[in-house]
Design goal:
This protein has about 230 residues and is an alpha+beta fold. The chain is built from 9 helices and 7 strands.
């Protein structure tokens, strides 16, 4: 089938089957694999699941349902709606960080945030909206999850818990969120919370004792303005 005809245009989903955990069909699988290959090339890894596992994975990817995400947040004493903190909590600092249009520049800024958030024991990446996704984008995420031993649909398990030894994979997944314009939270066990929503901003809630984060956000705000002025 030509990629410009049939199901590629209509977006009708077929049922899930082996090698197609999202149920998008063979044409979308091909597009997804092309996108996965491009992302893996950017990481300098081999284009196969074993290669990705050997570099990034020490254990199966820890995906979570909505209910399990709520339980994880509760166990860390993190509010599910972080915007409540502005009214209910005086021990958090709220900032907004403009992100550069170029994905590479935005990912570099995200890396600085995650590195400054160390040490942390665990972090929850929680996808909440991907209304503007294209098939190749969804397949990229599904293929990464499949390579990490999870065949579930993103809509059923939108949460991912990363250990401290999975920092780089967390940053890579955050980069996908920015590149695709999706909405997602990243909550660290020490209660630092980042939210990337559909737009050009990232919201940052940092406990008042995390002075390094507040200082970094000030620095990154200036850096983002420089990037945006160059990007025109």
């Amino acid at each position: 089938m030509d990629r410009t005809s049939g199901e590629w245009h209509t977006g009708r989903r077929q049922g899930p089957r082996d090698g197609d955990p999202a149920g998008f069909g063979s044409e979308w699988i091909l597009a997804g694999r092309d996108e996965v290959a491009r992302r893996w090339d950017s990481l300098g890894v081999t284009r196969d699941c074993d290669g990705l596992k050997s570099l990034l994975l020490r254990r199966a990817l820890q995906t979570r349902t909505n209910e399990q995400c709520s339980a994880w947040l509760s166990s860390k004493r993190i509010l599910e709606d972080p915007y409540q903190r502005q009214d209910q909590r005086s021990d958090f600092t709220f900032d907004q960080l403009p992100l550069p249009a170029a994905t590479g520049n935005a990912t570099a800024m995200l890396r600085k945030l995650v590195l400054t958030a160390e040490p942390f024991d665990s972090a929850l990446l929680y996808f909440t909206d991907w209304s503007t996704y294209s098939p190749d984008e969804m397949l990229t995420v599904c293929q990464i999850r499949q390579c990490h031993g999870d065949d579930g649909w993103l809509i059923k398990t939108p949460g991912h818990v990363f250990g401290s030894d999975e920092r780089d994979l967390l940053i890579e997944m955050m980069g996908l969120v920015v590149e695709y314009g999706w909405t997602a939270y990243v909550c660290f066990n020490h209660r630092l919370t980042l939210m990337r929503w559909e737009g050009e901003l990232m919201d940052v809630w940092s406990p008042d004792w995390m002075h390094e984060i507040s200082d970094l956000v000030d620095e990154l705000q200036s850096e983002a303005e420089r990037f945006r002025s160059k990007e025109g």
